[in-house]
From TrEMBL, chain A:
<keyword id="KW-0547">Nucleotide-binding</keyword>
<keyword id="KW-0418">Kinase</keyword>
<dbReference type="InterPro" id="IPR029056">
    <property type="entry name" value="Ribokinase-like"/>
</dbReference>
<dbReference type="InterPro" id="IPR004625">
    <property type="entry name" value="PyrdxlKinase"/>
</dbReference>
<protein>
    <recommendedName>
        <fullName>pyridoxal kinase</fullName>
        <ecNumber>2.7.1.35</ecNumber>
    </recommendedName>
</protein>
<dbReference type="GO" id="GO:0009443">
    <property type="term" value="P:pyridoxal 5'-phosphate salvage"/>
</dbReference>
<dbReference type="InterPro" id="IPR013749">
    <property type="entry name" value="PM/HMP-P_kinase-1"/>
</dbReference>
<dbReference type="Pfam" id="PF08543">
    <property type="entry name" value="Phos_pyr_kin"/>
</dbReference>
<feature type="domain" description="Pyridoxamine kinase/Phosphomethylpyrimidine kinase">
    <location>
        <begin position="74"/>
        <end position="230"/>
    </location>
</feature>
TrEMBL record, chain B:
<keyword id="KW-0547">Nucleotide-binding</keyword>
<dbReference type="GO" id="GO:0008478">
    <property type="term" value="F:pyridoxal kinase activity"/>
</dbReference>
<feature type="domain" description="Pyridoxamine kinase/Phosphomethylpyrimidine kinase">
    <location>
        <begin position="81"/>
        <end position="241"/>
    </location>
</feature>
<dbReference type="GO" id="GO:0005829">
    <property type="term" value="C:cytosol"/>
</dbReference>
<keyword id="KW-0808">Transferase</keyword>
<dbReference type="InterPro" id="IPR013749">
    <property type="entry name" value="PM/HMP-P_kinase-1"/>
</dbReference>
<keyword id="KW-0067">ATP-binding</keyword>
<dbReference type="Pfam" id="PF08543">
    <property type="entry name" value="Phos_pyr_kin"/>
</dbReference>
<keyword id="KW-0418">Kinase</keyword>
Length: 322, 332
């Protein structure tokens, strides 16, 4: 069984962070060791006045990761890092993950540099240099990153306004990171409100653009589910000695899984109203149906029909090359 | 294989320990329950690198105030969640034990939902908690309304003061339990070994249970012991028991008929054993040896990690398709 260590947030109710990542990965056969960077009652979309719980202190996180890597030094095939609440916790995760990766070159490290979206930071500014140092480390320790365009711009250090600039940014970051998936590009590159554009790039190959129909609803946890599935699919891609698996089809497969989960989520929602931030009823309604989607995380080949109740025909979301 | 898309999920609040590595507490309960269609709201009372069975561990306890506000200001207050069941397990201090159990008791009584209390005190003659926690458990069980409690033999002995060395003493323990803790509706005592402490082991174990409206009507299953000590098996057992006791569509507020209770315990025991057997086979080299009587206690393998992920096929079998592998017996 492959084993993975995931350091990100824990919510008691709902599915974001480790709660969105763990169960799907377990269904795919991973032993998932979860290190929780916070324990909150629920995600912040319910309104900050409704979030209770605590942030894991730097000292506690340091001791916890020290104990895990100390006791189980031979165990991991992959590491994932997601939301960390402050500079100290990013630095602490980075220190432990880097040391471990240096000793275990074969394991994959996926870092989701959770900083903000669409020009808005949701962490303190002092987190930025920590993520930049990890992403741009000359040791090349991080294998995969999953920024949105805003986070990519922060790591790159420049705004990205065209496909050409996006290609340059990817090229720059590929010096240290082999796999980059930009989970959503902004409208100054693809001016199309009815679709989301995702760009996936593996070092030394042309980046691929994926076009995904935009759903006008506020889902949280989709990015965390995406990162978890990406780590699974990239592990399989690298493990495939006879190169049957094409990188762009692995990404297409993930997008199909996410679309199925969203379809299940909407089909089980009481109403399909557009959810509103801070509104408890619609937030609860739009929690990803991670449990009901138990049988949907596996790869279904293109044009495969694995499911009867809902239309789960596998689609090709590949839009072209960047 | 069941298809989860057809089954509306049930909701549980599970208040237990969390370990980064391995499967005890919430890590042992969450995946099996989720795989069987439960939305598990896991509230972690501690976060440790691993369970103490490894020799060393690091980590910390959650602050009691945080645990309390997550439940009453967050989950049941702000979010207005109504659970189908609440499970409490390891609570690391007297304060946490008192505050969280009193809060859970209040929530469960107000909402008329079952509270399953696992009195985590110790195992095989050894306490995990200090005496103050033992006394607190006695106080809480004496005054709270608990739907189901799942002590192991040692915990039942500690809570009743009756050493369970034979069937008569077991009956006495159930009677005493009911006298002391009249608010507890059902008791399931897992893994009773009458010969424990004696020189020769019988090689069998017993799970005994009773609806406490009739504490003398004790039923039990006897089964061959697996020749190993597993960390997390009790936590797995209590999680699966909840799944079997409160099936989808059941009114969790109504009393169970005795045969439904026996069915639930039998199915839970069967599935738990399938998982422990596979864990054994995947961990200990050579074939499973439960046919053979153990030679020395020292030879008992210590299996630190349940192989839950490798048991997905077993976990996906619907409850009504689990064939109970043991005969149901009654005490007279």
């Amino acid at each position: 069984m492959p084993r993975l260590l995931a350091t990100q947030s824990h919510v008691v109710h709902g599915y974001v962070g480790n709660k969105a990542a763990t169960f799907p990965l377990q269904c795919l056969g991973w032993d998932v060791d979860c290190c929780n960077s916070v324990q909150f009652s629920n995600h912040t979309g319910y309104g900050m006045d409704r979030v209770f719980g605590n942030v894991t202190t730097e000292g506690d996180l340091d001791a916890l990761l020290g104990g895990v890597f100390g006791n189980f030094s031979m165990d991991y095939n992959a590491m994932l890092s997601g939301y960390l609440p402050n500079k100290e916790s990013v630095r602490c995760m980075g220190k432990h993950y880097s040391e471990f990766k240096k000793k275990n070159k074969d394991l994959l490290w996926l870092m989701d540099p959770v900083m903000g979206d669409e020009g808005q930071l949701y962490v303190n500014e002092d987190v930025i240099p920590e993520y930049r140092a990890l992403a741009l480390s000359p040791d090349g320790l991080v294998d995969i990153i999953t920024p949105n365009q805003y986070e990519l711009e922060i790591l790159y250090g420049k705004e990205i306004k065209s496909k050409q600039e996006l290609r340059e940014a990817l090229k720059y970051l590929h010096k240290t990171i082999p796999v980059i998936v930009v989970t959503s590009c902004s409208s100054n590159i693809f001016d199309d409100k009815s679709n989301i554009y995702c760009v996936a790039s593996i070092r030394d190959e042309d980046p691929t653009i994926f076009q995904i129909p935009f759903i006008d609803s506020y889902f949280t946890g989709v990015g965390d589910l995406f990162s978890a599935l990406l780590l699974d699919r990239v592990s399989k891609y690298y493990a495939d000695r006879a190169p049957n698996l094409k990188f762009e089809y692995q990404i297409n497969d993930i997008i199909n899984v996410i679309q199925r989960v969203l379809k299940v989520t909407r089909s089980l929602s009481v109403t399909n109203i557009k959810s509103k931030m801070g509104d408890v009823k619609s937030m609860k309604n739009m929690e990803l149906r991670v449990i009901e989607s138990r049988d949907l995380y596996h790869t279904v080949p293109l044009d495969g029909h694995g499911f009867s109740q809902l239309d789960f025909t596998t689609k090709n979301y590949i839009h072209g090359m960047l | 294989m069941s298809n989860t898309l057809n089954i509306p999920t049930r909701k549980i609040l599970s208040v237990q320990s969390h370990v980064v590595h391995g499967y005890v507490g919430n890590k042992a309960a969450a995946f099996p329950l989720q795989f069987r269609g439960w939305d598990v709201d896991a509230l972690n009372t501690v976060q440790y690198s691993n369970h103490p069975g490894y020799g060393s561990f690091t980590g910390f306890r959650s602050a009691v105030d945080d645990l309390r506000s997550i439940i009453d200001k967050g989950l049941t207050g702000g979010l207005g969640i109504r659970y189908d069941a609440v499970l409490t397990g390891y609570l690391p201090s007297v304060d946490a034990l008192r505050d969280i159990c009193e809060l859970v008791d209040k929530v469960c009584r107000e909402q008329n939902i079952p509270w399953v209390l696992d009195p985590v005190l110790g195992d095989r003659g050894r306490l995990y908690v200090d005496m103050a926690c033992v006394e607190m458990y006695k106080t809480l069980l004496g005054k709270c309304t608990v739907s189901l409690t799942v002590p192991n033999q040692f915990e039942m002995e500690t809570l009743t003061g009756v050493e369970i060395s034979n069937k008569d003493r077991l009956k006495e323990a159930f009677a005493r339990f009911h006298e002391l803790y009249p608010g507890v509706q059902r008791v399931v005592v897992s893994s009773i070994d009458y010969s424990r402490g004696a020189n020769a082991s019988t090689g069998t174990s017993t799970v005994a249970f009773a609806e406490m409206t009739h504490p003398q009507a004790i039923q039990y299953y006897t089964f061959d012991k697996i020749h190993a000590h597993f960390n997390g098996s009790g936590d797995l057992f209590s999680a699966l028991l909840i799944d079997m006791m409160y099936p989808e569509g059941s009114d969790t507020t109504q009393p169970l008929y005795m045969d439904a209770f026996a069915l639930a315990v039998g199915r839970c025991l069967t599935l738990t054993h399938q998982i422990l057997n596979r864990t054994y086979n995947l961990t200990v080299p050579g074939p499973a040896t439960s046919d053979f009587a153990p030679t020395h206690a020292l030879d008992t393998p210590h299996i630190r990690d349940l192989k839950l992920i490798q048991c997905r096929d077993l976990l996906s079998v619907p409850s009504d398709k689990i064939l109970i592998a043991y005969d149901l017996c009654e005490m007279h």
